Each structure stands twice: as structure tokens, then as C-alpha cells.
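hey so u asked for the seq, here:
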Amino acid sequence: MNKITMKEKISYGFGDLACNTLFTVISSYLMFFYTDIAGIGLAAVGTIMLVSRVVDAVTDPLMGNIVDRTNTKWGKARPYVLWMAVPFAISGVLMFTVPDLSSQGKFIYALITYVLFCVVYTALNIPYTTMLSNLTDDSGARLSFNMFKMIGSSAGAFIASGVTLRSWAEPTGRLDLPEQLPCMALWALCCSSSALRTQRNVLCQSRRRSH
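ran it, C-alpha cells below
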């Protein structure tokens, strides 16, 4: 079995850093953005959140089943982490770029983009989390990987709430979205993609077990 390197552990942690950065931005700021900047009513925002939770209740176990049934030369989880990295970044930007439409138009747009992000987040995060069980058979090494995952998660939350949101906020309470969000999305995309380095080690180990 290949020796697990520090680079692979850090790469695995980058995946949760990317996911939790956008997740923290959403949980801390999205409702304010919808109501105070996009001009969507509270009742409409509540409906969006309710619909997204219903969708999550369906897509979470469904994605887990899909990953479990996946068998490719790239492994079970790696294809989804790779394919969902770009949609993850794009959907994150789309949520915060509500066009100037009617009230109903804004509601429909926000509903579609938020539900889309939730689906993409599920399709990326569940395979990423599944990778941990395939990285190594050693319980100590798994604990170490999980520690780096938690560090990445905490770092993402800190960057989102302690640095990024403050740099966006202007005295008027608005955000410089055209400049800040594409940069954040590109950075999140790079962090998500870096987790693939760890999965390559899984493939080498799997091939050896099969021989």
C-alpha cells in the first residue's frame, strides 16, 4: 500500500475548504441578499428554502446510491468530484446575480438557481466525503485525513465569514458582486479540483488489491 503523504492530506482538506466557504456565505448572507438587495419577499424566500430542503431529502440518499453503484476506471467518487467542480463554481455565482426582473421573475430565478446549487453541492460533497472510506484501510490514517478535512472546513468558514464578507460589504450594505464573486468561484473551483490528487492514490491502491 502506498504511503500517505502530507500533500495528499492537505489536498483532501482543500475539498472541504472550498465547499464550506460557499456554504458559509450562503448560510450567513444569502437571505439578506435575497430580501434587502434582490428585493424578494420574506414569504417567497421561505418558500425557496422549504423547496430546497425537500429536494435535499430526495437527492442526498439518491446521490449516495449513485456513487455506490458507480464503477469506472477512475473510481467511484472521482468522476463526480471532477464533473461537479465547474457547476459548483458557476451555480455559486448565479445565486448572487439576480437580474432585474419582476417580483415573480426574481422569485423563479432565485428558486431555480438555489435549488440548482443544492443539487450540485450534493453531487460534489457526497462523493468527496465518500472518498475518505477508500483512501486507506488504516484507522489512524483515516483519522488524520478527517482532521485535515475539519481544518479545511473551519478555514473555509473563517475565510467566508471573517474576511470575504467584510471585504464585500460597502457602507450601503451592498456588495461588489461583479468583481468579487467570479474570483471567489474560481478559487473554490481550484480548491475542489485539488481533492482529486488524493483520489489518484485510491486508484493505485484499488488496482493493487485487484491483482
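The two ends are 13 Å apart (CA to CA). The helical segments are 6-37, 42-69, 78-95, 103-135, 139-168, 177-194, 196-210.
lmk if thats what u needed
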